[in-house]
Amino acid sequence: FLTPLLLLSVLAAAPTGLSMEVMAPATINALNGSSVKLSCTFNSCYKVENKQFSLNWTYQECRNCSEELFLQFRMKIMNKQLDRFGNRVEFTGNPTKYDVSFTLKNVQLEDEGTYNCYVLNPPDRQRGHASISLKVLTEEPPKHDSTVAVIVGASVGGFLAVVILVLMVVKCVRRKKQQRLNTDDQKTEEEGKTDGEGNPDEGTK
């Protein structure tokens, strides 16, 4: 059962119909000339209805630059054919499954920048927003040999597991010992009470 205070905390943490959460990775790295998926999903208390749902994807070349709208959902997906992207933008999400991702094909160095995802799903009253910083690489990053890291990680993990196990055993042993002492003390106290009650009778006789 929830206490009143805990119940209030749970209700306060629960999502309300006045706001929604939009989730996207803060940074995505893409290799020049490749295709990359810019993932954006959202949570909503309501089912997505195409007549009310709206989506905007915008691009910012720099932090202080103005946003350029290049993909929009109003009843259906509408691509804004910016010269920057041409026909390289493909919507690969599914709004009914709370996914509004898109794929950028043949990534160019000029595609670096910030991609903003704006979602509104009435009766939610506030529009959700998330941003992705796209970094374009000219070559694949070197692969690090993680064998040593894996071995060290496994060793540390095993050691911690043993330590935790030992601590649990010690704790259990101490708890049982304490319970045994409490039981012995209780027996001694009861025996003392019995003796105390019997002595006056013997003195009377």
From TrEMBL:
Keywords in alphabetical order: Disulfide bond, Glycoprotein, Immunoglobulin domain, Membrane, Signal, Transmembrane, Transmembrane helix
Biased composition (Basic and acidic residues): 182-205
Subcellular location: Membrane
Segments crossing the lipid bilayer: 148-170
Signal peptide boundaries: 1-19
Ig-like domain span: 15-133
Primary site of residence: membrane
Membrane topology summary: Single-pass type I membrane protein
GO CC annotation terms, alphabetical: plasma membrane
Superkingdom per UniProt: Eukaryota
Record keyword Mitochondrion present: no
SMART domains: IG (SM00409), IGv (SM00406)
Keyword Phosphoprotein applies: no
Stretches the record annotates as Disordered: 178-205
PANTHER family per the UniProt record, alphabetical: MYELIN P0 RELATED (PTHR13869), SODIUM CHANNEL SUBUNIT BETA-2 (PTHR13869:SF3)
Name of this protein: SCN2B protein
Organism (species): Trogon melanurus
